Amino acid sequence: MTPVLRIFKEQIFHLPLILRLAIYEIKGKYQMHYLGVLWQLINPLIQVCVYWFVFGFGLRQAGEVGDTPFIVYLLLGLVPWFFISPTVIQGSNSVYSKVNLVSKMKFPVSVLPSITIFGNMFNFLIMLGLLTIVLGFYGINGGLFLLQLPYYLFCLFAFLFAFTLLSSTISTIIRDYQIMIQSLMRMLFFLTPIFWSMDMFSETIQTVIKLNPFAYIINGFRETFIGQAWFFDDWRYMLYFWSLTLLLLFIGSLLHENFKNKFVDYL
User: pLDDT tens for residues 171-182?
Assistant: First the structure.
């Protein structure tokens, strides 16, 4: 059995365990707080308000991006990013921080990134629900384009798993890598089309921006909810994204299989 298929089988077989540990992790993180898990919702809402004030009223004078109100455009970028950023950072550190748990409970190390992904997923789904309310308030309806939402959700989960599987292995072996990931995500926050539109740049610069896989996901969410384009309209961009995702998954699976029995040696 190839490493990719073996790891995929481990995720499916241990899915109930992944969900239980993800819920346990959420409860444990906020059990000493009066507001508990509500902080998972309060924190991103505060950030949205700050970014809306600074970038919406301060820099853009509350203007629109095309025909879309800036607050809607901003939310369509921030909601997926608030899921992407912590998942990448925490997922990259998941093996190093929890490898001792594996030795006690006897389950595959490969499920640790998945636990992080599912742990952050609950908050993401709540934010997605609030986003639909805001869109309804502004009378924005993606229509038939909403049928492709499951596709972009699958893109999001597939890339995050492929990336964190590889990243968590490297981060355990080379601890400096975790600091690099944190710096990279801070940089990508401004280099990903969250506050701005790619249409404001030349085709050459747009091509460079499209090398960022998170740009594909965030633009896809916008095009879905606003009703602008189908995911297969730009098939070359889609092919690039999936080629990169599968490449990361393949490399990550190989590295993980080679080092999974040696992780404890790096603690």
Answer: 988 888 999 999
